[in-house]
Amino acid sequence: MNAARLFISALTISVVSVAFAGPQGHGHNAETGAAGQASDVSRTITVEMHDNYYEPESVEVKPGETVRFVVVNKGGLVHEFNINTPSMHEAHQQEMEMMVAHGVIQGDKINHDRMNMDMGNGHTMKHDDANSVLLEPGETKELVWTFAKPADLEFACNVPGHYQAGMYGNVEFE
């Protein structure tokens, strides 16, 4: 391997390690809320993911409310449901591009073995944050979330190109 290739490989691992290290990526912060307890759930909202849109397109919540989201992928592609701020979604889209580039997301499939790939410093491409689920076509997953104070929040799919095609919705505070 020549020096330039070695440098690019090391740089890629460094960038990915930083990107997957925590809140600056697809994680969350006090502004968005926190993982909720099932015993605190006040209601359940079913969200269907279709290819490049959600149904419903927005949800209303109260500060401090704990909601169970039942997320169903009715599309033909892998999709994500991620609750976050617009700036966090923008940062997370870069991480999702890396997941595609490394073969983790393969159109309509998720390569779970590649999710475990060591990206350096013990970081992997696992998609296991409490504010997000990643689903193959036909899958259903649940996410329980307690919303914090009113903030600029949305739910979105950050698979490359999906957000830009309109696959996001607003979280409105009552």
Order of helices and strands: HEEEEEEHEEHEEEE
Low-confidence stretches: 1-26
Distance between the termini: 58 Å
For the largest beta sheet, what order do the strands appear in spatially?
A: 1-10-5-2-3
Query: Could you say how many structural domains there are in total?
Result: 1
Count of runs of 4 or more consecutive helical residues: 3
- Rg is 16 Å
**How many beta-strand elements?**
12
Instruction: Predict the CATH topology.
Output: Immunoglobulin-like
Largest sheet: 5 strands, mixed
User: Which shape, going by the Cα principal axes?
Assistant: globular
**CATH-wise, what's the superfamily?**
Cupredoxins -  blue copper proteins
Classification by helices and strands: alpha+beta
- Estimate percent helicity: 10-25%
Proportion in β-strands: 25-35%
Q: Kindly state the mean pLDDT as a whole number?
A: 84
Give the second-level CATH assignment, the architecture.
Sandwich
| The level-1 CATH class | Mainly Beta
